[in-house]
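Internal QA ticket QA-208
Title: Verify multi-chain structure generation after dependency bump
Assignee: T.L.

Test input:
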Amino acid sequence: NAGVTQTPKFRILKIGQSMTLQCAQDMNHNYMYWYRQDPGMGLKLIYYSVGAGITDKGEVPNGYNVSRSTTEDFPLRLELAAPSQTSVYFCASSYSTGSGYTFGSGTRLTVV
Amino acid sequence: KNEVEQSPQNLTAQEGEFITINCSYSVGISALHWLQQHPGGGIVSLFMLSSGKKKHGRLIATINIQEKHSSLHITASHPRDSAVYICAVLLSSGSARQLTFGSGTQLTVLP
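Actual output:
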């Protein structure tokens, strides 16, 4: 099983550019999440989804957008990239809130 | 004050030593997760527990709900155990957004 697949693994953006981080899971999980990890800090939730067509904001949603048109895919869109969005981004999925989480391998994004 | 506190922040051990990493939390939870982040950055789920104790190979996780405390133990540590270990709690209100993470413990096991 592929689990959770994130692309790209690395990206450098210029200030003001936009990009989409892709996330796909093949486990038929209902719940999907986007986190960012900054040095010395715990992971922070950006957005989450409890199923296709349903998304909601997490702790740090500003500057990001998501969509969930299918169970499998949960892309994260950065509009007008800013240096503060330099971080490592992780996508994760779970069958329910009470089950284990599966994480993607991460995307290291630098905004210059 | 963070809702999830881990200690120590950094730990260096010799191969073969018994290792303990602690996690304390200040809120009501329905479950606690232990995660391992490899030097390459990937995150793997080790345990999810809501009471008692779980064991997988050389790893043991315990939780004391009354004390709001969990420990991750590694027996007969090996250099391949070197990683960041992360504690995360699911708040008892049950909202999908409320998995709160500690900042991690960097473990280095020397040969």
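Spot checks passed. Chain A has a mean pLDDT of 94.
Status: verified.
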